Please model this.
Amino acid sequence: MELRTFHHHSLQVFMLLSLISNCYARFVVEKNSLTVTSPEKIKGTHDSAIGNFGIPQYGGSMAGVVVYPEENRKACKTFDDFGISFKSKPGSLPTYVLVDRGDCFFALKVWNVQQAGASAVLVADDISEALITMDNPEEDSSSVKYIENITIPSALIEKTFGETLKKAIRGGDMVNVNLDWRDAVPQPDDRVEYELWTNSNDECGVKCDMLMAFVKDFKGAAQILEKGGYTQFTPHYITWYCPQAFTLSRHCKSQCINRGRYCAPDPEQDFSSGYEGKDVVIENLRQLCVFKVANETNRPWMWWDYVTDFEIRWPMKEKRYNKECADGVIKSFDCFFALKVWTVRQAVLLQCLLRMI
Model:
């Protein structure tokens, strides 16, 4: 449900930090700033994590008034059931609805709020932790019906900040905020800078099929633009986490590394056989290592070669999604590039793999 698809691994913290610094393991949470402009007593700027669905107003900002519904506070049901509408009156600021995390998917919350007429959604975390990306629900086939129709922006905010907003609203204050996406856009220079949020899992259904189809179709244009110096590309890999209370569970151990901090759902949704979520996390890290080496050798376009070749030649359904097959792709590149990738992985990634038992 939302779903905290949870998993774990026994990597030592210092090893993961080493891996991150050496492999640019950028499991990045895309953030934007949220500024409270009134009331005076809670004015200030806070980070929020941009949802991986909807349409953020990149490069711009938007002001609104925050409301916290009296009923359906987790927004897991339609607000029509409660006779609640968030449509703004003519001449008034847009309505931002604050909802609580839990009990259903993030995307469903945002969809229900959008259907009630709101302009944006703020999801208050229910535990004190670092911000995470609100992702599409891979496990819920019914979400296909509404995911592509979500048009309003959404953001996850920290628990303490959420409590501050709730307290002010309950006290009768009008809470005005400004969502700012300008910092989420790379600084302009002579190149177009863009990012792709991806995943090496090729067995997650329609979502994975669409993503890989895009990568294959866009590969040629992307490589031409990179070689010409017209663009600067950066891949990111979405991860989940495992709540601390479950880090020793079988599911967490099979799907996560670093004591549950970086996880991926079980590809086949079968914990008794097949690939595990941690296999996906590890391959994601391999791909990040390839990107690091490609950048260092001034050939960033080679990342596209690796990910497409790996998916075509070594898919999960053929039981070839592993280190040996990844090495097979690397061997197809020139010796200098392959040696540099192996050097990085031998020094960092493979050490981590040996410690994951």
